[in-house]
Amino acid sequence: MEDTQPLAGGKAAASTQTSVDRAISELRRGGLVLLHGSADESVLLVLAAEMANEVALAAMVRLAGSLPSVIVPKNRARDITGNETIPPYSSMALPHGVDAALVRQIADPLFEPEKLGTLRQSLTIVPVRAGRLGPASVQLSKWARLLPSVVVARVSDVKAAEAARWAHASGLLSLSASDVEGYVEASARRLSRVATARVPLADAENSRIVAFRPADGGEEHLAIIVGDPDLEAPVLVRLHSECLTGDLLGSLRCDCGDQLRGALKEIGSQGSGILLYLAQEGRDIGLINKLRAYQLQDLGSDTVDANEQLGFEADERVYLTAAEMLRQLGVRSVRLMTNNPEKISQLRNSGVDVVERVAHIFPSNSHNEGYLRTKASRTGHLF
Ligand SMILES: Nc1nc2c(ncn2[C@@H]2O[C@H](COP(=O)(O)OP(=O)(O)OP(=O)(O)O)[C@@H](O)[C@H]2O)c(=O)[nH]1
Ligand SMILES: [Zn+2]
């Protein structure tokens, strides 16, 4: 198992992905990016709503020459306006002079709408058209692990065909909505295997850690290889999604800590296998959003509703990266330790032969009973 270099892609494809990588980090640090459609479609300036700040808002108004709107997910729009029939995403024009703190409050599902005061009456909803710029801008904010809400302003004088040049002259990053499509698939393939070390673990002494670095500048993923798996036979594999609270701190809200250590113990006792430790904190909504989801759960929602109230899918994870790691490790066929049928079907769709599901269940405690019940009743987990 030699360390490998990133797979080469076409030059055009690589620059498309780079523009999305850069846009994600720019949004994460509260900067503006320019998003355009094709040919005569429109051109938008985009700012992640939860990172709204006075400098970026002022620059947005000055550069766009139009007043900004904020795009919020369905539940937030319903809570703010009291209107029950709302499309998946709505945009609300921001009245002149709205400050950045107010924008952040509009976007934050944990901020009580009553506290928005008189502003609430003036926020009227315009549905965001499915398909192009609006949804693409929200997707960028999700990939930045921020709330799925963005401030946008249409750049009235600039056509899509001139957008990249105009952005460059204005010191802005630019990308097109079509760059956003297909990004996840391309991103998963841009994974380099960079370092391997022997790391004896308490639960599986004969272990090596192989680190994979994504080319998008994101967090690394790890493969923990126990023993010397026979790659000609199905390999015992566990896909573990990062859970800082459960894995590291011993949180009792979930079953992750038990599942992590239990998997290593089981693989160790069987002599060989692989645990993929995937940087997908909070079912891939990120740690901060997971803590927000916990806050909503403390107010009465279950784990699925809490994600949806924040504007995320119940589970945002895709396992293309996991499949690519297995491919680079030479693993074609697996016995998968999981209770989650989605992991099985996604791996199979990515070309991994899942020959068996190995149940991976641990006793509940008084804090995670409800969470485990929801996994069984709402997300199809097999308990
Ligand atoms: N968004 C969110 N993520 C959570 C919550 N509780 C745990 N997680 C995350 O869920 C991931 C673990 O997923 P689980 O649903 O417990 O299990 P699974 O991986 O789907 O399925 P198994 O293979 O059967 O364990 C980790 O990334 C955790 O951080 C929660 O309430 N909200
Ligand atoms: Zn957890």
UniProtKB/TrEMBL annotation:
Reactions the enzyme catalyzes: GTP + 4 H2O = 2,5-diamino-6-hydroxy-4-(5-phosphoribosylamino)-pyrimidine + formate + 2 phosphate + 3 H(+)
InterPro entries: DHBP_synth_RibB-like_a/b_dom, GTP_cyclohydro_II, RibA, RibA-like_sf
One of the record's GO cellular component terms: cytosol
Amino acids binding GTP: 238-242, 259, 281-283, 303, 338, 343
Superkingdom, natural source: Bacteria
Domain GTP cyclohydrolase II: 193-358
Active site feature: 315, 317
Single Gene Ontology MF annotation: GTP cyclohydrolase II activity
Positions contributing to Zn(2+) binding: 243, 254, 256
Cofactor field: Zn(2+)
Cofactor remark from the record: Binds 1 zinc ion per subunit.
Sections of the chain in a coiled coil: none
GO biological process: riboflavin biosynthetic process
Keywords: GTP-binding, Hydrolase, Metal-binding, Nucleotide-binding, Riboflavin biosynthesis, Zinc
Known role: Catalyzes the conversion of GTP to 2,5-diamino-6-ribosylamino-4(3H)-pyrimidinone 5'-phosphate (DARP), formate and pyrophosphate.
Protein name (record): GTP cyclohydrolase-2
Source organism of the structure: Nisaea acidiphila
